[in-house]
Automatic annotation (TrEMBL):
SUPFAM superfamilies per UniProt: CBS-domain pair, Clc chloride channel
Mode of membrane association: Multi-pass membrane protein
MF terms (GO), sorted A to Z: antiporter activity; ATP binding; voltage-gated chloride channel activity
Protein name as annotated: Chloride channel protein
Length: 774
């Protein structure tokens, strides 16, 4: 027979070459989509052409860092090879190399412009709660009074062009009725702003709530949260951040600005193919975007780069460091060009200190660090307890009502105290700045005594006036109020960053311990410096930042000589907070939400083996596997339908359990669906092969599918006696999503990142079921 002759012709030295017979048969005539001549089926290889969707990931799953980096190396190798063939290919190679820097430029420009718009809008809407400008409602209080010729030094905040709501409604700003009217309008505007913020978040972009940094840390570690960095999230986050800050809630815009910058980077990544198609490359851009967010939030480009490196990034190669620096520079330049505060600075509370500090002052600096550490540990525990209560009780079912109640309480308690009524940035600016002859603040109201006239703006040594003591009481009440209300506010369904708690120190130079360096008429200590160190200590206690926080505060003050006090307070704060609890606020929220984040700072000290963690356990059903050549399409589809696993090991046979490779669930589903749509004859009885050579099929059988191309031929494996601390290090440093466990080459089980996190939670006496995602 003809078929037999062809078979004999395709034998070489009595060794059958399986892929040749089908080629020989097809060469003899035209082959259809199903069978060839005499009913012999044609072999299907789905990877002759790229299949859309293969190599991508489902929502709430972890990426395979090793596979993504391998794909990028292959892509780069191909471009480098082609660049030697023609001038056009060389130009494409140069364009590919330059695309990363162009993307950083665009991210910096877009983030800086949005940050400038947010600052200007928030400043205007905050002042709108107290009054309106008659020259134009779009002017805030300061801009409204800039051109007024009737503003006096004593009443610099009052000008005819700016009218309070009481003046507009009842015609006067004096008396109890006017005070009540201003009070009522302040509360009403605050409620309106917060209601709009929570309603927009709930209706259009639920991911726009909160700080965003815990989720960004998780995303940068390789987790997929689709829509979290999308277009709608960016639009709603930008709008509602302005509304939330303007409502007077005890929150900041620093964390949300990091989220906004990462949204910009994610959207712009879609303009460049190599970032759009590779999740690992995209995360390098997001790491740089996190630096951009801090750069525009604090006006600290270098601090932003260190923040990304120290706090949020999981994978931070040297190339990302350079690009982060460039993007932060562009963003800071853009914000400076916009000049949102009119002071030629990047932030409202930029200060400059020139007075030296004294060695003995290290004692109060360390005490501030101790306070900051205790406060940070208290804040984390209280906030997580409140957020857990929100999740597990009916309180979480009414986010709008919760936001309105907290806003009403905040506004009612904040208005009577001038230090809680003003915005967070204005409060920090007032506390950070030193008193001068031109200051009209209550904190600078010292008694008038006969002093020698000085040409400088320095304030000579004078006793404190009555307003200073009043201000101290108000600040003490503001501190307690902010501490308590921030616990409830952080985590609500509005964009919210952490408020930086600030402290103020005032002095009396007649004390014995000060006589060594305090000379009459000279500055003894700098109260603004104590406020800055206290703020750094409290923020360090909450977030556990160290190097990046010191650099951020240094860039705010511009004083090299204050690095040592900042370092002392920040380090002490971290030590104290770590002694009371190992997690920072962002790690605590990651654990609360059940995200699969392997904390690099957490040590694994337990003596367990891979066999103790792998699945299946002794009481579990056998491991679900796919054989390399013994299963049909129907068998594989049944296995997919009956399980929820993200992938399956491929073995030689059920009996031998010899490992061949690993295939992802999503790739299997997409490949089979694609074959059914594009190829006639593929039915449930079609055989699936993961082998290199496909054996001949019986006559009249449906065409087989060759899926070897979607299989990982080199999955990471460990033996069953590998120590778990080594396994944990492998997962952390390589970014694995799963690891196979073998014994003498025979497959025993599998360990996923979720299994490791559950095991670590169990070892730490926590609920292992709190880990929700893989």
């Amino acid at each position: 027979q003809e078929n037999t002759e062809l078979w004999h012709r395709c034998f070489v030295s009595d060794v059958p070459i399986y892929f040749v017979p089908l080629t020989c048969i097809c060469a003899g005539g035209s082959c259809g989509a199903g069978d060839g001549p005499n009913g012999v089926p044609k072999l299907m290889d789905l990877l002759d052409e790229p299949v859309p969707g293969v190599g991508t990931y489902e929502d709430f799953n972890t990426i395979d860092w090793v596979r993504e980096k391998s794909k990028d190396r292959d892509r780069h190798r191909e471009i480098a090879t082609k660049s030697k063939e023609s001038v056009l290919a060389l130009m494409k190679s140069i364009s590919d190399a330059f695309s990363g820097w162009l993307l950083m430029l665009l991210v910096g420009l877009m983030s800086g412009a949005l940050a400038g718009g947010i600052d200007i809008s928030a400043h205007w809407m905050t002042d709108l709660k107290e009054g309106v400008c008659l020259n134009g409602f779009w002017f805030n209080h300061e801009h409204c009074c800039w051109n007024s010729n009737e503003t006096t030094f004593q009443e610099r905040d009052k000008c005819p062009n700016w009218k309070s709501w009481a003046e507009l409604i009842v015609g006067t700003n004096d008396g109890p009725f006017a005070y009540i009217m201003n009070y009522l309008m302040y509360v009403c505007w605050a409620l309106l702003f917060s209601f709009l913020a929570v309603s927009l978040v709930r209706a259009f972009a639920p991911y726009a709530c909160g700080s965003g940094i815990p989720e960004i840390k998780t995303i940068l570690s390789g987790f997929i949260i689709r829509g979290y960095l999308g277009k709608w999230t960016l639009v709603i986050k930008t709008i509602t951040l302005v509304l939330a800050v303007s409502s007077g809630l005890s929150l900041g815009k620093e964390g949300p600005l990091v989220h906004v910058a990462c949204c910009c980077a994610n959207i712009l990544c879609h303009l460049f193919t190599k970032y759009r198609r590779n999740e690992a490359k995209r995360r390098e851009v997001l790491s740089a975007a996190a630096a951009v967010g801090v750069s525009v939030a604090f006006g600290a480009p270098i601090g932003g780069v260190l923040f990304s490196l120290e706090e949020v990034s999981y994978y931070f190669p040297l190339k990302t460091l350079w690009r982060s620096f460039f993007a932060a520079l562009v963003a800071a330049f853009t914000l400076r060009s916009i000049n949102p505060f009119g002071n030629s600075r990047l932030v409202l509370f930029y200060v400059e200190f020139h007075s030296p500090w004294h060695l003995l002052e290290l004692i109060p600096f360390v005490l501030l660090g101790i306070f900051g550490g205790i406060w940070g540990a208290f804040f984390i525990r209280a906030n997580i307890a409140w957020c857990r209560r929100r999740k597990t009780t009916r309180l979480g079912h009414y986010p709008v009502l919760e936001v309105l109640v907290v806003t009403a309480v905040t506004a009612l308690l904040a208005f009577p105290n001038s230090y809680t009524r003003m915005s967070t940035s204005e409060l920090i600016s007032e506390l950070f700045n030193d008193c001068g002859l031109l200051d009209s603040s209550q904190l600078c109201n010292y008694a008038n005594v006969s002093v020698t006239k000085s040409s400088s703006n320095a304030l000579p040594d004078r006793p404190a006036g009555q307003d200073v003591y009043t201000a101290m009481w108000q600040l003490s009440l503001a501190l307690v109020f902010k501490m308590l209300i921030t616990v409830v506010t952080f985590g609500m369904k509005v964009p919210s960053g952490l408020f930086i708690p600030s402290m103020l120190a005032y002095y009396h130079h007649d004390w014995v311990i000060f006589r060594g360096w305090c000379s009459p008429g000279a500055d003894c200590i700098t109260p603004g410096l104590y406020a800055m160190v206290g703020a750094a200590a409290c923020l360090g206690g909450v977030t556990r930042m160290t190097v990046s926080l010191v650099v951020i505060m240094f860039e705010l003050t511009g004083g090299l000589e204050y690095i040592v006090p900042l370092m002392a307070a920040t380090m002490t704060s971290k030590w104290v907070a770590d002694a009371l609890g190992r997690e920072g606020i962002y790690e605590a929220h990651i654990r609360l939400n059940g995200y699969p984040f392997l904390e690099p700072k957490e040590e694994f000290s337990h003596k367990t083996l891979a066999m103790d963690v792998m699945r299946p356990r002794r009481s579990d059903p056998p491991l679900s596997v796919i054989t390399q050549d013994g299963m049909s399409v129907e068998d594989v589809e049944s296995l997919i339908a009956e399980t929820s696993y993200s992938g399956f090991p491929v073995v030689v046979s059920h009996e031998s359990q010899r490992l061949v490779g690993f295939v992802q669930r999503r790739d299997l589903v997409i490949s089979i669906e694609n074959a059914r749509q594009r190829q006639e004859g593929v039915v449930s009885a079609s055989r699936i092969f993961f082998t290199e050579y496909t054996p001949p099929q019986p006559p009249n059988s449906p065409p087989p599918l060759k899926l070897r191309g979607i299989m990982d031929l080199s999955p990471f494996t460990v033996t069953d006696h590998t120590a778990m601390d080594i396994v944990v290090d492998i997962f952390r440093k390589l970014g694995l999503r799963q690891c196979l466990v073998t014994h003498n080459g025979r497959l025993l089980g599998i360990i996923t990142k979720k299994d490791i996190l559950k095991h670590m939670a169990q070892m730490a006496n926590r609920d292992p079921d709190s880990i929700l995602f893989n």
